[in-house]
Protein 1
Amino acid sequence: MSDVPGSFTWRVLHERHPSLIARVREATPYDARRNRALDALLEEIEGIMAPPEDSAHDRDLWESWDRGHIGRRWDEVPFLWAESYFYRRLLSAVGYFEPGPWRGVDPFEPFKQAELEGEAVDEELRELDALADAPAGERDQALILRALWGNRADLVFRISAGPDLADREAGLVADDSALLWSLAGTGRVCLVADNAGSELLPDLVLIDHLLHARGTGQVILHVKPLPYYVSDATVTDVLACLRRMAAAGGEAGRVAGRLRAAIGSDRLVLRAHAFSCAPLPYREMPVGMRDDFASASLTIMKGDLNYRRLVGDRAWPHTTPFAETTAYFPGPVAALRTLKSEVAVGLTGGTVEALERTGRPWLTTGTHALIQARA
Ligand SMILES: O=P(O)(O)OC[C@@]1(O)O[C@H](CO)[C@@H](O)[C@@H]1O
């Protein structure tokens, strides 16, 4: 829940979301009607959640996902539900679903594009040249760590986390990478993406490595069907990353070429399932998605939000076993995530004590990360 003033979740709803609305307005010159709708949303999020508009194409879907929350205060329903619904309402406010000129215009695209065009990305892509000749085991570890730490590049987080984010020290609080690699066999691997740009690029490089070097037969890449949580990856973002890598040339260009071919031969399959933007945990996933995960030798869940949805967005004792919270999942699963919310399981008592002893925050700052897996 988010009803304790000053708590992390309360601040997301009452500080992060209003500042996000301001950033969206700065980034795009919306017309008067859109601005009025954004004003109305700004007011609404301090009070009662309104239902989707009568004419909304996805009204039935949201009603099926509702658990009696619509009509209550935004901060009195589960945090995951309120946060997800906020992004849905923001898209409505900017006219994303309505027939007319603003239909399909991603309000977060200016942020995503600026990041993808940045020099930091050039540097990261150039580093792939040296990695291409590294011994196999070294490459495995380097690519998984890049995909993991790429998760720090979450634009909703950057907007509000302060300028010193990049300087923070890196700490792995759990590392099941050996188990992860032993599960990534020659069959199918699912990767459930999180952010576009600097996170999706290393995810795509990891996918290429699985297909090209590790003998994985097929990768199914799940992305979001809609712009979501600012920087979450959509199919448009996958295509933008492929173009960016192709333009960079060198090893990045070769990776892009192989991935294009893999899409053409169905060795890399893209999915954009409606449930990927649902305000619910994966425990409630629908049959089609369950079948995908059940058919894979490994599903890799990227990022903080996917982690919350995977283990359940609850105040678990941090020593609760990861295998216990994911026992419902239909196949082997791994999480690659930097810690940006208060949910964490699968840690040893010693690790938790050592982290608490530092006296510094470690759960919500993006300074720590984990690799967890269960067979
Ligand atoms: O899923 P991601 O991109 O790693 O993180 C999403 C996130 O920034 O959004 C929420 C707060 O708004 C937190 O769960 C988390 O910090």
Protein 2
Amino acid sequence: MRKIKLVEVRSEIAAGTRGASLGVDALKIASLDKKSNFFTQFDPINVPDANNFLWKGNKHPHAKYIDGVYQVLKNVYSTIESLRLEKKFPIVLAGDHSTAAGTIMGIKAAHPEKRLGVIWIDAHADLHTPYTTPSGNMHGMPLAMVAQLDNLECKVNQPLAETLSYWEKIKKIGGDSPKIDPRDVVFISVRDTEEPEDFLIKKYGIKNFSTAEVRQLGISKVAQEALQTLKDCDQLYISFDVDSLDSSISVGTGTPVPNGLTVEEAIQLNAELIKDKRVCCWEIVEVNPTLDTENTMAEIAFDVLEITTKSLVDNF
Ligand SMILES: NC(=[NH2+])NCCC[C@H](N)C(=O)O
Ligand SMILES: [Mn+2]
């Protein structure tokens, strides 16, 4: 069996709604209520966040708290790089989705020669940049950070010079080269995008398996085709944003969207994908219990986490 390491990242500064930093602990409460021994099996490591920046107020309208985001990304990057060098399999429990960029930077830094593919299960494409973001929330930008995209063709904002200097630094964490080719991204259930993102999806021919397609093809076929799309990649990272689930289920998350996956679909999908031997890291993000009742979102997310991890363990 591969050595699994749980990584906790309680960042919420890059989300537009407060509370995603509590997602990790909500997962633990869900585990206790379920009387699961999950959290006794793997000892977790905690990555320092920069949520204290929230008290100071935001100075960057088109990339909110980018100074804090930069710090967190460096922390996540160095943690993940070390774990990968120790041949550990990181299972990352995170808050806002921006930190997935740090995860990807770390994976790439540990094995720069390996071509890295990404399976992004999410309602959103998270391909924005400070030049295109409609909200300024940096959880909408991680894939642009790691692919080193500015998307100036679709520029709508005029970010401040200081914002752009942080943006340049972020893109260079782990080295001044793209960590992924955008063509090596596969989306699943992405259904709420803005024009600048649609432009990039088209430009790079990024494959998205819509919810309808998931239902049409069935989970095993989708998993198979997603992995086939990334056949030339040497290692794979799976990012599971709980807002990929239908908004009737994903109440406890900052940006819920209708027409998403069912719980069963999400569980089967992750359990299937993680069997591929190239997968070297799995991440779950954006649980926000302050928007929820009875910790429902975390209970569902915990089921996904537990079953996906079991599939990983059983297949090694
Ligand atoms: N990881 C997420 N929940 N991302 C939501 C992004 C929503 C929207 N595209 C924005 O940039 O504001
Ligand atoms: Mn996301």
